[in-house]
Specification:
Layout lengths: L13 H28 L3 H32 L1
Helix pairs in contact: 1-2
């Protein structure tokens, strides 16, 4: 995961930013699938709770990234 500070957040090309955003979306999809698979495998109640939280967090991140992609597409029009 790449974190940027405010000074470097707007440097670089728009195409590079789109590529990075698409890469983060793909990583988030993988995190969702991983959390789902792990949730289906565990039987311990504590681990079940853990993977429920992990799945919810991954889904929220995915939704956030999709919203950023939609905003990016609107700005390009």
């Amino acid at each position: 995961m790449i974190f940027r500070n405010k000074r470097t957040a707007f440097r670089g090309s728009r195409a590079g930013d789109l590529g990075e955003l698409m890469q983060q979306i793909e990583i988030s999809k993988g995190a969702i699938l991983s959390a789902q698979n792990q949730f289906e495998q565990v039987v311990d109640p504590t681990l079940i709770d853990c993977y429920i939280y992990e799945l919810n967090a991954a889904q929220l991140r995915y939704q956030f990234l999709l919203q950023r992609l939609k905003k990016w597409e609107v700005q390009e029009i």
